[in-house]
Amino acid sequence: MEGNAVVLVEITWILGFAWETLALSLAVWIAIKHFRELQRTSIGWAVEDCFTILTQTHVFYFAR
């Protein structure tokens, strides 16, 4: 039984690490998209534009 517990802990750790890596990758991807859109509209963007774009990308991400 002890051997199975060790394997279970290792699998849990690996799945948790994979999930955190995926979440970090998606967060970086969203941030890159966000800053690219800001560069396109850099003619006079304000903080309101920043929050609008950020909200739109999050809504799109969670709607999928």
What can you see in these coordinates?
This protein is an all-alpha fold. The protein has a domain of 40 residues. Helices cover 88% and strands 0% of the residues. It contains 2 helices and no strands. Helix 1 packs across helix 2. The longest helix is centred in the first third of the chain and has 39 residues. The N and C termini lie far apart (41 Å). The mean pLDDT is 81.
The structural class is mainly alpha
> Which percent bin holds the helix content?
over 70%
Summarize model confidence as the mean pLDDT: 81
Biggest sheet record: none
| Rg estimate, integer Å | 19 Å
Sketch the topology as an H/E string, one letter per element. Answer: HH
The percentage of residues in β strands lies in under 5%
What's the N-to-C terminus distance? 41 Å
The best one-word shape is: rod-shaped
Number of helices: 2
Q: How many β-strands, per DSSP?
A: 0
Regions with little confidence, pLDDT below 50 for 5+ residues = none
Helix and strand layout, with pairings?
Elements: H1 2-40, H2 47-63
Helix pairs in contact: 1-2
